Amino acid sequence: MLITVMRSKLHRLTVTQADLNYVGSVTIDEDLLDAAGLVEGEKVQIVNVNNGERIETYTIVGERGSGVVCLNGPAARRCAPGDIIIVVAYGMLTIEEAKSFTPTVVFPDTATNKLI
Fold first, then answer.
1. φ and ψ at 15, to 5 degrees?
2. Catalytic machinery residues
């Protein structure tokens, strides 16, 4: 049997932009994606600390070192610039694998979204 577990997390990013007219997704600084082991197009859950909203979308690579965190398309209705969010990716593991698995958790500087 497989269970779903948290694989990686970007904890407390500050939304820098919201672009309602973009096709969809969340654009995240490539440094942050790399640190969390996330890839372009990967399904992620966005948890908005400010309003409690939880949405699912996929990642788009943003400019490396820019600190960009931009909610695009309909997701822009759920997160505004300045909101604090958590980005979570999940994976499927057996119960035995899950017992010894350690997820990647990244705590960037909330003011700049830069790695500390």
1. -65, 125
2. 25, 58
Give the separation between CA 116 and CA 99, rounded to whole angstroms: 29
Q: What are phi and psi of 31, to 5 degrees?
A: -60, -40
Burial class (CB in 10 A: 0-12, 13-18, 19+), 6: middle
Pair type for strands 69-72 and 43-48? unpaired
Residue-wise pLDDT tens digits, 75-112: 999 999 999 999 999 999 999 999 999 999 999 999 99
Q: Is this structure's pTM higher than 0.85? A: yes
Identify the CATH assignment for 2-92 out of 3.40.640.10, 2.40.40.20, 3.90.1640.10, 3.40.50.1980.
2.40.40.20
